[in-house]
Amino acid sequence: MTKILLVCGKDGQFKSVKAEGHASFSTKGFDIVCAAESFLLRTAFQVLEKTEGLVVVADSSSRGKFSFQVEDINCKSESYGCVEQRLRFTADFIREGLSSLQTEYPENIQFEELSEQ
User: Fold this and answer.
1) What is the pTM of this model?
2) pLDDT tens digit at each of 117 positions of the chain
3) For residue 71, which of 85, 83, 84, 55 has the smallest C-alpha distance?
4) Are 113 and 102 in contact (CB under 8 A)?
5) Exposure string (b/e) for 45-80, b if CB count within 10 Å is 16 or more?
6) 48 contact partners, CB below 8 Å, separation of at least 6
7) What is the CA radius of gyration of the chain?
8) How open is the CA angle 70-48-33, to the nearest 5 degrees?
9) CB–CB of 13/97 below 8 Å?
């Protein structure tokens, strides 16, 4: 089972996500649950990584582990609103995608969200 934790700020903005484990729906190379999880998380990471003004750090140092977090927001005041929107959308994207997967494959994925106070 893959365990995934999404952390958002009190304003709903993405802060970090951590995925550990294996979905074990099928054999390596044929696991549709693993492929879906990977696609969602890697796409979210790539979008944030290409966002001007954000510093995003990722860790995929071992098999069955992928995490990334926003380390710093260095944007000019006029573009900050756009970055805030992108961070909220990223949290929504991850939440909706993983919640849907968890509903369809409850034995293969455990998704949890934590909101900072």
Assistant:
1) 0.89
2) 999 999 999 889 999 999 999 999 998 889 999 999 999 999 999 999 998 888 899 998 888 899 999 987 776 645 556 888 899 999 999 999 999 999 999 999 999 999 987
3) 55
4) no
5) beebeebeebebebeeeeeeebbbbbeeeebeeeee
6) 14, 54, 56, 68, 70, 86, 87, 90
7) 14
8) 100
9) no
Cβ pair 101, 109 in contact under 8 A: yes
Q: Which two tokens stand for residue 43?
A: 């796409």
Sheet of 65-73: strands edge to edge?
A: 54-59, 65-73, 14-21, 2-8, 109-115
Q: Which amino acid, residue 51?
A: T
